[in-house]
UniProtKB/TrEMBL annotation:
Pfam families: SpoU_methylase, SpoU_sub_bind. Keywords: Methyltransferase, Transferase. This is RNA methyltransferase, TrmH family, group 3. GO terms for biological process: methylation. Belongs to the class IV-like SAM-binding methyltransferase superfamily. RNA methyltransferase TrmH family. Residues 20-96 form the RNA 2-O ribose methyltransferase substrate binding domain. SMART domains: SpoU_sub_bind. InterPro entries: Alpha/beta_knot_MTases, Ribosomal_eL30-like_sf, rRNA_MeTrfase_TrmH, SpoU_MeTrfase, SpoU_subst-bd, tRNA_m1G_MTases_N. The lineage of its organism: Bacteria, Bacillati, Bacillota, Negativicutes, Selenomonadales. It comes from Selenomonas noxia F0398. Residues 1-19 have a biased composition (Basic and acidic residues).
Amino acid sequence: MKHTEQHQRGTRPAEHRSDILAGRHAVMEAMKAGRGINRILLADGLHGSGVRELRDLAREYGVATDVVSRSKLDAAVPEGVRHQGVIAYAAPVSYVSVEEIIAAARARGEDPLLLLLDGIEDPQNLGALLRTADAAGVHGILLPRRHSVPLTETVARVSAGALEYVPVARIGNIAQTMRALKEQGFWIAGADMDGTETYDRANLTGALVLVIGSEGRGMSRLTREICDFTVRLPMCGKINSLNASAAGAILMYEAQRQRRAKAAVPHG
């Protein structure tokens, strides 16, 4: 990678951690119940009012739908399961809204610290980032719906349980989300190998969004432009970049260190 709400959930029982939901009614009821849905697959040639209703509901909940061959759906579900031309990949936990994350942090009297992941596609990195986010007191993670790995069983396993405690919000347009947060008083710091400040000299206190880019490309150009400032990690060796989860861990802990130091300073 180029340098480019703490909200507690109860542990869900094993029967609610299945990856695949089959059938139109099962998928629709899961969305209505607030279940985290990563993606819906529809069989090619599927038509009718029920399909239109499903598409409308998916659009309302911001869930991506893709049309695939019926043979692909047959291969995705266990033998004997009737999918009726519709399956959904469900997250191990439910996603929350950005507003919920912020409100939970404010309710605790804390300045929100958010982690926005721009193009993280490796579930191992996402799981590791979740684990560090829990340890470092990050209030929530913002995960784009497109071009990012969703919450899966692999992510949950690598997170070593942290996924149950760190809220994750799925966002649509990254640029729009960043601009909306800036309007709410957030500062946005992007990790970049050519950052304007070193990580330990940048001010990482207050309402803050830390942006970590993809493993290979770093942040997108537009994301970098919207950041208020960028921070870099000094590289003293022969390798000029760090793994996304390693860079993210350093920045999250530096933000936590600065916040503790600020809180320890007597007021008045």
